[in-house]
Amino acid sequence: MIGRTKRTPWHDSAFTRAMVAAMTVGAVPGSEVVLETSRLLLRPWRVAEAVVQHELWTERDPRVPPHRRIDADGHPTVAELEGSIRTNQLWSSGLLAVERKASRDVIGYCGLVDSERGSAGEPELAFELLRRVWRQGYATEASLAVLEWARSSGYERLWATVWDWNTASRRVLAKVGFTETERKEVDAVYGTNLLFTTRRL
Ligand SMILES: CC(C)(COP(=O)(O)OP(=O)(O)OC[C@H]1O[C@@H](n2cnc3c(N)ncnc32)[C@H](O)[C@@H]1OP(=O)(O)O)[C@@H](O)C(=O)NCCC(=O)NCCS
């Protein structure tokens, strides 16, 4: 999906100093993806951060379908999520860890996933943050960085799906330039999934 690569020592101070202030898109072919905004770094997940993913799973809204929530037997466990970070490229070059630069904590993910909705090469924007950091503009800031990354990677259009009840997510999509399409996916149990898209990036 997105260019992969040589490991960037994002935590190295020389590298940090080399980054320009507002936003840097580090998706150079052959190098690992690192995006920087004024408050955030978006970069590959580390195995030790599976606990953050587990917290996201634990906190999910009860209206979200069960396959995206911790099941009655406690799955996925932290160990299972660690395995996923180790083996699934999604966590290194798709859904990036969102790290706050000031506190150096990971607060969720933002990135691109393959989509079945549009044409080939038109991925979906996805984001999810820990509840304790909501309403501080982080999802908007991270999404703008991902949009710039998508543009510079050659994508011309993105998609996003959101449950109709998800006001915060719909607001974020509107703020970063997505518009609602006429297409909806109605689920008899969980409600209506709305489809959003960008104009040409
Ligand atoms: C969606 C999500 C990532 C937003 O993160 P965030 O960092 O709080 O987003 P931002 O602060 O950048 O923007 C949120 C916007 O929604 C608004 N908002 C948040 N909750 C709202 C609510 N219940 N009703 C109305 N507006 C709401 C905020 O006021 C803000 O808009 P504003 O800047 O115009 O005031 C976060 O709520 C989340 O992780 N939700 C669960 C996962 C999810 O829904 N992911 C998306 C799946 S498509």
TrEMBL record:
Q: Which domain of life is it from?
A: Bacteria
Q: Which SUPFAM superfamilies match?
A: Acyl-CoA N-acyltransferases (Nat)
Its protein name is: N-acetyltransferase domain-containing protein
Enumerate the PANTHER family for this protein.
GNAT FAMILY, PUTATIVE (AFU_ORTHOLOGUE AFUA_3G00765)-RELATED-RELATED, N-ACETYLTRANSFERASE DOMAIN-CONTAINING PROTEIN
UniProt source species: Streptomyces enissocaesilis
**UniProt-listed Pfam families:** Acetyltransf_3 (PF13302)
Enumerate the spans annotated as N-acetyltransferase domain.
Answer: 40-199
Instruction: Return the InterPro entries for the record.
Output: Acyl_CoA_acyltransferase, GNAT_dom, N-acetyltransferase
